[in-house]
Specification:
The complex is a heterodimer.
Chain A lengths: L1 H29 L5 H5 L5 H10 L6 H14 L12 H36 L4 H15 L2 H19 L18 H38 L2 H8 L4 H28 L4 H6 L5 H10 L3 H29 L7
Helix pairs in contact in A: 1-13, 5-6, 5-8, 5-10, 6-8, 7-8, 8-10, 9-10, 10-13, 12-13
Chain B lengths: L5 E12 L2 E13 L4 E5 L6 H8 L8 E10 L2 E2 L5 H7 L4 E4 L13 H12 L5 H14 L5 H4 L9 H12 L6 E5 L7 H18 L2 E6 L2 H7 L2 E6 L2 E7 H6 L4 H8 L41 H5 L5 E2 L7 E2 L23
Parallel strand pairs in B: 3-8, 3-9, 6-7, 7-8
Antiparallel strand pairs in B: 1-2, 1-4, 4-5, 9-10, 10-12, 11-12
Classes of the chains: A mainly alpha, B alpha/beta.
Chain lengths: 325, 344
């Protein structure tokens, strides 16, 4: 098992290195010269720009620049930003922590609801509940995230305009003066309600469909009939024999999705201007600064690789037929 | 004869489907006596399994529906028994072995857990240790070698034959009065089939259960059964002891089955099939459901208009047949060696 994990991590590091090089080339070449807009501005000191270009080796070829980036990434915590020369890692830790809060809360709630909805739908297939859940799932899947986020903001603002009550904040992670201790936590939670809701809708919609489908498959299987023929009570038949088998495909899906979401819920974070990974990435891309983009990429790719591995390991725990040598 | 342990009368089960009502079994009646092996033969879809699954409350309702009939077990009609009572009986006094051991065991629990579960659910107060000890005994009884080690293995670590042994161990865990074996050897290869037959015999010796053997394998019937129920299109068409069924069948369908067997004692160029296809259970032919395929009907009116009732044949004891012209079939010699293998 340990050997398997180590081997997987070794394979993954190769993938990571290849990915870092490709993305570096794309950003460095594709986005053009990040300093170009400033050369055109009349009131900017040209010598300063040249000093930056010199210090960041912008005039070297892309392989040399990549080599410098690797050196910075390894020895200097991903280096500094291009224009402002700020260290990258502290910013990245901050946005990661924020994204983690958002995603963990949203996904945990989504799993809870989705599993309950999926199982109940399957056990009462073609009931009113099942049809209702199905309809809302398809609605949830079909609704664009940005639209839902905007509509929620509009609704909350309308309520404020009509009643004078601010039920939820529509932007940012905290109030201007959030206080500290418990009042800070409550303020943060209050701000996270709408973004969490938006993320949950899409997750519940897809997870509950998966759960329903896999539960349906399992409750019609021969071994569930065997469990019934044994004289087990129906609750044990479904919750022990069927549920554990039905959970297996969902675990993989959730783990993979979770890894990807840690890269930032880009649309949600942008609409609600949340200081998270997604917004950080979008901002770095806008100024064509390869260094924060690269740092973001390495963290995100690592997350995806780690959660892929977690998905496989979880699979092995749930399904004894899967064993890693 | 002794009192029957299970007595099924006029059992009629239908399934509602999008294409129409499937008449899975119609007016099925038979008795099961203590200690005997009752074979139920017929083609796929002839209703062999449905009657037994219905008795145990294992058909999904809906779409399934018991239209009429009763199934008396120890003085109690199982078709009217509440769900909780049926659950006590399932796996307790009436246990079942299923067709495909590859899919009938839960892949995520160990063999031992699954057998012990059958013990624990029917013996409240039994200690886990006691259940484990008994599980080991059962595995040894059905011939699983190294039971001590294999008890903690998962189904995927067992071969097909070993899994079926484990299924049998699970079924006889609570000393059932009735053991239903639904195509117990169909999914296994021939050498393993012979071993499983021995295990079933051993299981019967151990528990003295009456066995209902549902199969389309006439070789297996010849090997194990004492009496045979022949089913066609959801009805019982013939019922007799195993020698009578093989030596002097009195229903054209049974005769067709026997003629289509490969025989070791005769020089046969080709097997003789029954012409035509089994009818759709949604739109059965009028009259006798077998008449379109019957070589004895010969266009006779009554075969197309009247459903033949199951009646005992004069001078033949318990032999019953549902053919209008059962007596005409006496002369025909269709003797088949009782040891011949091969399926129907």
């Amino acid at each position: 098992m340990l050997q398997y994990v180590v081997r997987r991590l070794l394979y993954s590091s190769v993938v990571l290195i290849a990915a870092s090089f490709l993305v570096f080339v794309f950003v460095a070449k594709g986005a053009g010269d990040p300093l170009a807009p400033y050369y055109l501005a009349p009131n900017i000191d040209k010598e300063g720009l040249e000093r930056i270009a010199e210090a960041k080796h912008l005039n070297e070829n892309v392989f040399v620049r990549y080599a410098y980036w690797v050196r910075d990434a390894v020895t200097n915590q991903f280096g500094t930003t291009l224009l402002t020369n700020e260290p990258i890692l502290p910013d990245l830790w901050r946005v990661m922590k924020n994204t983690l809060q958002l995603v963990v809360v949203a996904e945990l709630l989504a799993i809870l609801f989705a599993v309950a909805i999926g199982v109940y739908s399957a056990l009462r297939q073609y009931s009113v509940f099942d049809y209702t859940a199905t309809t809302f799932s398809f609605l949830g899947l079909a609704t664009p995230v940005f639209w839902l986020a905007l509509m929620l903001q509009v609704a909350v603002v309308q309520i404020y305009l009509h009643t004078g009550h601010r039920i939820f904040p529509v932007a940012n992670l905290n109030s201007v003066d959030p206080g500290s201790g418990l009042s800070f936590v409550l303020d943060r939670a209050h701000h996270l309600v709408l973004p969490v809701l938006v993320l949950m809708v899409a997750s519940i919609a897809s997870y509950s469909r998966y759960m329903r489908a896999s539960m349906l498959e399992v409750i019609n299987s021969d071994y569930v009939r065997t469990a019934r023929a044994k004289g087990l009570p129906e609750s044990k038949v479904t919750m022990k024999h069927a549920f554990r088998n039905a959970l297996i495909p969902l675990v993989t899906l959730v783990a993979l999705n979770f890894g990807a979401l840690l890269g930032g819920a880009i649309v949600t974070e942008t609409v609600f201007s949340l200081d998270g990974m997604g917004l950080y990435f979008v901002n770095a891309l806008n100024v064509a600064d390869p260094y924060p983009v690269m740092a973001w990429l390495m963290i995100t790719a690592t997350m995806i690789i780690v959660f892929n591995l977690i998905a496989d390991i979880a699979y092995g725990f749930l399904d004894p037929r899967v064993r890693y040598e | 004869m002794a009192e029957p342990v299970l007595s099924i009368r006029d059992l009629t089960v239908e399934f509602d489907t999008e294409d129409g009502v499937v008449k899975a079994v119609t007016d099925v009646s038979y008795d099961l006596y203590p200690g005997e092996v009752l074979g139920i033969v017929g083609e796929s879809g002839s209703g062999k399994s449905v009657s037994m699954l219905t008795v145990l409350g294992l058909i999904p309702q809906p779409p399934g529906r018991v239209v009429r009939g009763e199934a008396i077990f120890e003085g109690e009609d199982l078709l009217k028994a509440p769900a909780g009572r049926l659950r006590e009986i399932r796996g307790g006094k009436i246990a079942m072995i299923f067709q495909d051991p590859m899919t009938s065991l839960n892949p995520v629990f160990t063999i031992g857990d699954q057998i012990a579960e059958a013990l624990l659910v029917h013996n409240p107060g039994m200690e886990e240790e006691e259940a484990r000890r008994r599980t080991l005994e059962l595995l040894e009884l059905v011939g699983v070698p190294f039971a001590e080690r294999r008890v903690d293995q998962y189904p995927h670590e067992f071969s097909g034959g070993m899994r079926q042994r484990a299924m049998i161990a699970m079924a006889i865990a609570n000393q059932p009065k009735v053991l239903i074996a639904d195509e117990p050897t169909t999914a296994l290869d021939v050498t393993i089939q012979a071993q499983i037959v021995e295990v079933i015999k051993a299981a019967q010796r151990e528990t003295n259960a009456a066995i209902v053997l549902i199969t389309h394998d006439l070789g297996l019937i010849a090997e194990l059964a004492d009496r045979v129920v022949v089913m066609y299109a959801g009805r019982v068409v013939e019922l007799a002891d195993v020698f009578t069924i093989f030596n002097s069948p009195r229903h054209p369908y049974t005769i067709g089955l026997m003629s289509s067997l490969a025989r070791l004692d005769a020089d046969q160029e080709r097997l003789e099939p029954i012409p035509g296809q089994p009818p759709s259970l949604i739109s059965l032919p009028p009259g006798c459901a077998f008449h379109p395929r019957c070589i004895h009907s010969q266009g006779r009116e009554i075969c197309r208009t009247e459903v033949p009732v199951l009646r005992s044949l004069p001078g033949e004891g318990d032999h019953v047949s549902a053919c209008h012209f059962a007596e005409e079939l006496v002369a025909r010699d269709v003797r088949v060696g009782a040891t011949s293998g091969g399926g129907a």
